[in-house]
Automatic annotation (TrEMBL):
Domain of life where this protein originates: Eukaryota
Record's protein name: Olfactory receptor
The species this protein was found in: Bos mutus grunniens (Wild yak)
Positions of transmembrane segments: 26-53, 60-83, 103-124, 144-164, 198-227, 239-261
Family: Belongs to the G-protein coupled receptor 1 family.
Lineage: Eukaryota, Metazoa, Chordata, Craniata, Vertebrata
Length: 314
């Protein structure tokens, strides 16, 4: 995919990413911090996979395994390329590479969005329809839900990537961020972005609003069912299975909504980029394994067995 030339033959062939901070003296500290965050995220999610794959085969852990893979993918799309630019002191990124990063970021985040909805539906069936749970959430249904999540996210990411490729980029090419995304590219376009912005709002409303509505509806039914349980211990156990997922959903949607509300600003401070962009692309994937391992006794037990098994081999 190449930049679309204008009538005078000029077009932007590459963009300049300013990064998180523009002071060269701070680059080594930023490099170490983001490398640490990347290693923790990848290590944490691989640990979740190592814990649940051998022993935990229920639908909830099937979806959790897929979520861990997505978290590794999300942070890998943005952080390694930023680390490479910090090492080489080269802040340029080719046009095609920028659009490729945009595509894969929206693809993985989109799958994440739908997968969280599938997990909410799983909790709804487990608590509100326990007698038919095994048939309604069979392995075939699980695979279909994951496949549909990928198909919808792929369509969304491809739509935005193709739409942004139709815009002209002929003047400024400086992106005030550390990765390529739609709001920043809109600001650099020489042509009208009104249709692209309407597309972002409309498709975003469908792709994020519909799953969020389904999650809320599922948990309204779950809360009603749990409150009907007479045993305090039963209520506590039922809520404990949903607490981790609700926490992840709140962080995911909260940071995502704020990200696209704030990052459209033409003047982003270091605080904005660190607080919004980093939280959305780095902190979220890093927190997910911690949330699920700290709040889930089954995952804790499985992780402990993995660690004990490795020590016995040593």
């Amino acid at each position: 995919m190449q930049p679309k030339p204008r009538a005078n033959g000029t077009a932007v062939a590459e963009f300049i990413l300013l990064g998180l901070v523009e002071t060269p003296g701070l680059w080594p500290a930023v490099f170490v911090l983001f490398l640490f965050a990347y290693l923790v995220t990848v290590g944490g999610n691989l640990s979740i996979l190592a814990a649940i794959l051998p022993k935990l085969h229920t639908p909830m852990y099937f979806f959790l395994g897929n979520l861990s893979v997505l978290d590794i993918g999300c942070i890998t799309v943005t952080v390694p390329s930023m680390l490479g630019r910090l090492l080489s002191h080269k802040r340029t990124v080719p046009y095609a590479a920028c659009l490729t990063q945009l595509f894969f970021f929206h693809l993985l985040v989109g799958v994440d969005c739908f997968l969280l909805t599938a997990m909410a539906y799983d909790r709804f069936l487990a608590i509100c329809r326990p007698l038919t749970y095994s048939t309604r959430m069979s392995q075939t249904v699980q695979r279909i839900l994951v496949a549909v999540s990928w198909a919808c996210a792929f369509s969304n990411a491809l739509t935005h990537t193709v739409a942004i490729s139709t815009l002209n980029f002929c003047g400024p090419n400086v992106i005030n961020h550390f990765y390529c995304d739609l709001p920043q590219l809109f600001q650099l376009s020489c042509s009208s972005t009104q249709l692209n912005e309407l597309l972002l709002f409309g498709v975003g409303f469908i792709m994020a609003g519909t799953p969020l509505a389904l999650v809320v509806t599922s948990y309204i039914h779950v809360a009603a069912a749990v409150l009907g349980i007479r045993s305090v211990e039963g209520r506590k156990k039922a809520f404990s299975t949903c607490g981790s997922h609700l926490t992840v959903v709140a962080i995911f949607y909260g940071s995502g909504i704020f990200n696209y509300m704030r990052l459209g600003s033409a003047k982003l401070s270091v605080k904005d980029k660190a607080g919004v962009g980093v939280f959305n692309t780095v902190i979220n994937p890093m927190l997910n394994p911690l949330i699920y391992s700290l709040r889930n006794p089954d995952v804790q037990g499985a992780l402990w067995r993995v660690l004990v098994g490795r020590r016995s081999l040593i």
